[in-house]
Amino acid sequence: DVKVTQSSRYxxxxxxxxxxxxxxxxxxxxxxxWYRQDPGLGLRLIxxxxxxxxxxxxxxxxxxxxxxxxxxxxxxxxxxxxxxQTSMYLCASSLTGGLAFFGxxxxxxxx
Amino acid sequence: GENVExxxxxxxxxxxxxxxxxxxxxxSASNYFPWYKQELGKGPQLIxxxxxxxxxxxxxxxxxxxxxxxxxxxxxxxxxxxxxxxVYFCAATPGTYKYIFGxxxxxxxxx
Lengths: 111, 111
Description:
The complex is a heterodimer. Helices cover 0% and strands 54% of the residues of chain A. Chain A is an all-beta fold. Chain A starts with a strand and ends with a strand. Chain B starts with a strand and ends with a strand. In chain B, the strands form 2 sheets. In chain B, strands 2, 4, 5, 9, 10 and 11 form a 6-stranded mixed β-sheet that branches. A 5-stranded antiparallel β-sheet of chain B has the order 1-3-8-7-6, with no helix packed on it.
């Protein structure tokens, strides 16, 4: 069974904290993605990676960075969390041209 | 820029009736169109997909149609059941890294 696993289901962090969201996939996919999901806005792409150590900005990269040191792991980093980063964060992976598999999501609340 | 419009944003149907969700895409290079179902508290799960060389695809109570000329594709659910209640997302991709998602449709099936 294919699997994309996000390290936390729920997180509560304070404003200004550095936050790490981790994602691991076991399908040997070259592409990995981080999306943010907000009511009425659908899924918005933050960053994606098409290979180890490679990353590309998505539509809303401001305030975020990413790290892909190994093929199976893609981390999203909030350098200094702010309340407007409270959201549901979804990780996904895919083969190029293939369908994307999603993790279960991390609901982050910044207080 | 590239976008996918999805309608309606909410849809309520009586159990046993049919539900139709429509999407329109802008990038004529798009050639793969997956549909995802997201239940409360979970990540999106693929339910059906279609490629641009096919006009229609069916899987039990779910079908997807594609009109490449008009850049429209639709999800049809027949004989709806309460467990079909969820948020549904369409997406379009030109077969590269990038998926463009619709804003989602919240389907409620009333028992």
